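I am writing to request your help with a piece of structural work I have in hand. Thank you for your consideration; the sequence and its tokens are set out here:
=====
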Amino acid sequence: MFMYCWGAKCHGQLGLDDRTAGTSDTDTDEPDSNKGDLVSTPLEVRFFRRRDVCAVACGLRHSVFLLKDGTVYTCGSNDKGQLGHEMHGRIPGQVKALETCVIRHVACGEAFTVVTAENGTVLSWGDDSCGQCGCGSEDREPKRTPRFLKRLSMHHVVQVACGGAHCVALTKGGRLFVWGDNTYGQLGLGHTSVKYVEKPTEITSLHGLPVMRVAGGGAHTFVVSVSGTVFGWGRNHCGQLGVSDTKDRSQPTLLKSLRTQKVKFIACGKNHTAALTADGGVFTFGAAADRQLGHSSSSNEINPRKVFELMGSEVTQIACGRCHTLAFIPKTGRVLSLGLLSHQQSTTRPAYRRSMSTPINISGPWAEGASTQNNLPNETPKHHKSTEQSPSEQNRKKLKEFQSNVDDEHGVLELESDLNEEVSIPEVVSAGEDSAEEMETDDIANHEVDTDFGRLRRGLRTRTTGETQDETKEERRVREIFSGGDHCFLAATFAKASEDVVDHREIPIDNHIATIDAVFMDTLEAASSTESLSEPVMSSIEEVFSSAACLNASFLKTNDEHFGSSRQNHGMDLDAAREQFRRLAGKEAVVRYVSI
């Protein structure tokens, strides 16, 4: 697994070491005010080179990393205790208070963090000035260590999303709970009379709606049903709710214009929203001052509008930061950027920085296809390999000869002036940072390259990569993109790896509400052969049969016929429901328990 990053780094939120500013060479016209604060081209976060990161969440000035084994690392600003530890914030540190928990999901607000454990419990820490930690505390002081949300202890939470200072959680039983700041009605409780809600409170107006996704923006909230119905609420001064006006909403409001678009996923920025459809289309709406909507305009959009520049491409992932949007197209292997990061962090060319109103390609050491759909500008010049030994290859040979004389403590080798000449390179090699614990096993030279101009940088580093020489040549592919605040992350794997690329249109089984499916029926059939039902089976039965949302999600018409459901089109396969209940009727133990 390889983790790459770009964007704001002034608070250490990228997890990079302080030893490198992270910007390109001085002759790239990068403003002095940006040097040291911005990473303008993707760099590798070497701390995670030998750690399997499965998810990343970004706050305004901090980041949270979830490993496959359930451990959590954080970095960045810790002014409100949002890191959950007191270690140096510029290098990822483990949240050791979570060592007894197996964490499966992470989320961030502006300055607080929320995680869900394998057993469905929820923990939070950080800024609690608006009750966003959900602990029920009235002191509003920052919570510097993780705390359980007792109000949710009786529920198995499968999803949680954070806004700037509020949260929304979805339980396995299909119930929605919210807490935190309610200034603009972002909790969806139908009022703003209570400004802060310190404990998780259920949204009763959506009872029976089988929710598939939850999302939080600066001060607005969205949910998407299994049939693609979209409801939004909260602040709407820029049109970020997409309901044809700029009035705030304190209760869930249907986005009628997206009803037939088969929406699968929603991502929210501070004041804008992006929706991903089943066919890979992207709709954006809300604030556009930083061109984050991708509509070649800085005018706000109060209605969902399809991103014209992405039409013809099948997008499978989207992510939003404060004032930017990312999109991933697997067919071409390209990551596209819209908005603030497009003209500040993703390129060092002044022409693009001044006015980039359409999506641009974020180039990095991952494989990209030959397709040039939409004629999007590619920021990294492509150089053809030559059969002759190139100057850069000669430099690498020299570097290898000098390796035995490298200062192991600092891992830096100063070369003669002939290595500082501008040379054309046959491939892009990403620069990056190490953690102190990894520097002791240095064995491979890593060439820092200005990816915009193709120059070898001075002070070539020989810190470890943890790879063999064959592995450094192996193609990498994008697995998943993450964004928040003013920074971004990208997880990549070897192209030949068996690990699947993430598709935001598909929902992981662990994040889904309970339904009567084949697995559920098999479990009941096996359990009904005994005289008494086990506790887990009884819990599953209660969860499904006590929830209209779970039942509604259980018998949907196939082939996407349930999309666009309404009062006139319920979208349910009644024949399938009849057949499943007929099977259940023959299970005496189940019928007896349900009838109690």
Summary: Residues 514-594 form one domain. Confidence is low (pLDDT under 50) at residues 20-34, 343-355, 370-392, 398-466. The two ends are 50 Å apart (CA to CA).
